[in-house]
Design goal:
five-stranded mixed beta sheet
Length: 241
Amino acid sequence: MSNNHFEANRREALIKGVAGLVSLGAGAALLGGCAASAPTQTARRTDYGRRTTAVDRPRYRPTSPTYPSTPTGVIPRSAWAKGSPVPALMDTMLPVSRITVHHDGMDTFSSRGEGDAASRLEKIRQAHRSKNWGDIGYHYLVDPAGRVWEGRPLAWQGAHVANQNPGNLGICVMGNYEDQYPTDLQLETVERFVASQMRQYRVPVGRVFTHQELAATACPGRNLQPQLVAIRRPGGGLAVA
């Protein structure tokens, strides 16, 4: 075989390989949902936005007074989690500069029982750990009874919006709001709790998002999205936080 023929074959193989990678990336970008969906970042990332190389990790190290482990009134993760976070799979959290609200996107969930909520949280945590993430992806979760639960400790960057997690506080409304409606208690708690976090970290209402406003996804669902838009409008509970 001539050198020219060999080089032509090699170039053709390289072109096909690059095309395959581009096609794979395009397919991943179409994934929706939230807790049940795969991350849309490249293979270098494991924790929904965490880079695996040391040079890419944030140098900021949070301190306890800045990031309390459990805010007042929040149920600690020790009340539900059957496993600990894995620091080697996470990055430290940058100062909070924005907030993103989600639903968990799994099957519908309407139970107001505390034990049922704890089981749901563990189910989400295990689903996220199965993706080789360091812990449950959200920092806080709100159940149908209006209770707020601690998810991933805030010392660690969340895993809830692909490639946009640094400094992004992740709050999840438990349930699937494509197929059900949030309870009044959930909506009241979300408004009150998000407002408290805005004040705590001086996040303006223009930096409070829903997942679908940052990525191609249905999250937080057609029955929750309008409610979250309404509380950010002038006169809404978050507009005056």
